Amino acid sequence: MKRKFLPIACFFAIFLPLLSGCGNAPSSGNNEVIVYNWGEYLDPETLEMFEEETGITVIYDEFETNEIMYPKVETGATEYDVLCPSDYMIQKLIDHDLLAELNFENIPNAKANIGSQYWEQSKEFDPENKYSVPYCWGTVGILYNKTMVDSPIDSWSVLWDETYADNILMQDSVRDAFMVALKRNGCSMNSTDTVELEAAKQALIDQKPLVQAYVVDQVRDKMIGNEAAIGVIYSGEAIYTQRENPDLEYVIPKEGTNVWIDSWVITKNAPNKENAEKFIDFMCRPDIALMNFEYITYSTPNEAARELIEEDDIRNSPIAFPDLSQYAGLETFRYLGADADQIYNDLWKEVKSK
Amino acid sequence: MKPNKLTDRLLSAPYLLWEAIFIIVPLGMVFYYGLTDRFGAFTMENVVAIMGAEHAKALWLSIALSLASTVVCFLLAYPLAMILAHMNVSQHSFIVLIFILPMWMNFLLRTLAWQTLLEKNGVINNILEFLHMPPLAIINTPAAIILGMVYNFLPFMVLPIYNSLVKVDPNVVNAARDLGANEIQTFFKIIFPLTIPGVISGITMVFVPALTTFVISKLLGGSKILLIGNVIEEEFTQAGNWHLGSGLSIVLMVFILFNMVISAIFDKNGEGNML
Questions:
Q1: Do B224 and A342 touch (CB under 8 A)?
Q2: Which of A319, B10, B56, B260 lies most in the core, judged by the most C-beta atoms within 10 Å?
Q3: Quick check: A211 contacting B, CB < 8 Å?
Q4: Nearest to B47 by CA among B32, B68, B64
Q5: What confidence tens digit (pLDDT) does each residue in B83-97 have?
Q6: Do A181 and A325 form a contact (C-beta atoms < 8 A)?
Q7: Which chain B residues have a beta carbon less than 8 Å from that of A352?
Q8: Coil, strand or helix: which one is B42?
Q9: What is the pLDDT of residues A215-244, one digit of tens each?
């Protein structure tokens, strides 16, 4: 008996806690909020402050791209309360009925502090401003090293200039890469026109021999380290890179670009909806928004927080807070549907395998 | 005391459960996704997709690069294993330790370090510039990918070969010498044939991870060179088409199984399992 007992005991000792753990792991505590945000996209200190002030525990998880985030939310494998997706992905989430309408009475700081133009812009993907609260916004542009180019840069076409062969860093993601090619060709970056997309694909294939590498986050470090002369970058990263390497300059190309917004949203099946609204409200408080802006350097739509920025050159920085009325051809990404997504992905694969 | 069958079974239960949850179930899911379409209907389309121009090209490129790195690994590993095998115990355990030491560091970090070394303004080029020598321009080329593969997988070739070399009975070698064979003849007629099982498992252990890698080509190839691993990764993370990603994984699995079968036939003593 003894001999048989031991393995059985071991078995239960090892697996019972696991099994019981399965049952109540998610949404057990009623005083928590589960946040799913971009990597390095807020000041961790603000989370501690939130926990201290409200007594709500924050369970914090990070994603790398909208595309990685989406299936996790769709399948409901993990129950998240608060997400921070980009414009077109919010539209997709709304389309698939995965978001909850917000009760703005519980989020007074949102309407009070977020500038009206950002609510207006949000209507592109959230037509009635029912689901999302803008958190960060920005543009996509060209970051170049003044010491490595002959003349100031103002156009996407420089990315096809052979003098900069092996000195160009492109974004390694479908929509961003096609945005550059489509804008250069004078088309909409939300185009689903086969002829326009084919032309954009051909342009990207023509460009490939000149490209040093396709990168996402690494464009920051490579530009700081003088590895390349020109890179396509998100405006939020530009301020940081300039601090590290003063030779770098950011420009919004004259053909226009992507003006994007990342917004807080709450999932349809959020287990802690009230806490989630408290969290979003907290993030909209001017002092918290300021802390986050200073930590991540992505432009804040929070006008009250912008007023609090001490340095004049940052508060009026044309990179962080550009006067968008000066530029033509500005657009926001829209979700184009599964079929168009498929076309984009197939064309991108052709570019990458050339 | 004879081993009790029931005890055996119970003791292996945790492992079997682990295997079921983390190997069988995921494998089943790969096959489910790979053989269905968006609407859940059965289709072979995702598997046949390997014939498409981009996928086929990525697969051949992966095979070519992993073969090249396997050959380079073999040419480097065999002499090294022989040197190790001829040392006395205290010396060789130290050398083997030095050899395995980098493997304790994270694979991603080591590959990232190579990126910093090889970059245009990287460490190697700075040294070359200081010595007034022409710069090394292999970053973001297939050569850099092969270098990354060789660096990361070389220990997997050295150790099985080393294991089979130390098992060669010195009396066999002495007998060959006795019978008049010179060094070269002894090597090709006696030593090398006896170490073939080690060589085969070394080849498998280098070729399979090299064939499926997507990190090395991403970091050292600048994402400009699309290997089959990158195609599959992007289907999951960027394109969100799990069906196509799984279908292509099934094809890749066939290649890996083929390789494993060959190695199982030769490697009856399990040199490959020494790691």
A1: no
A2: A319
A3: yes
A4: B32
A5: 888 887 777 778 778
A6: no
A7: 54, 223-224, 226, 230
A8: strand
A9: 988 899 999 999 999 999 999 999 899 999
